[in-house]
Specification:
6 strands; alpha+beta; Thrombin, subunit H
């Protein structure tokens, strides 16, 4: 899943390596320092509407795989429900 970092009016595409109810791990990207706030936009697989959320960088990986963990801040209730429903669908065998 691709995630747009739209912080400060710029647009950088980053790849999600992991999504949870409370945050997202952005994989294979040059990390931003811990504590920085970012604005992210992404569309869940099988969904048409984008989710826009503010997040805080809470961890970074400076190893070969480069990446960073982002904690969601103030996620709207409806968007939280969409993420939780997607995670439940993804974890349930069809």
């Amino acid at each position: 899943m691709w995630v747009e970092d739209i912080t400060d009016g710029s647009q950088v595409f980053r790849r999600a390596g992991n999504l949870s109810s409370g945050g997202i791990y952005l994989d294979q990207t040059i990390p931003i320092p811990v504590g920085v706030h970012v604005q992210l936009r992404f569309t869940l697989p099988g969904d048409d509407a984008a989710i826009i959320v503010t997040g805080e960088i809470v961890s970074i990986s400076a190893t070969e795989s480069l990446g960073m963990g982002v904690k969601f801040l103030g996620l709207a209730g409806a968007e939280q429900q969409r993420i939780d429903a997607y995670l439940q669908r993804a974890a349930s065998p069809q």
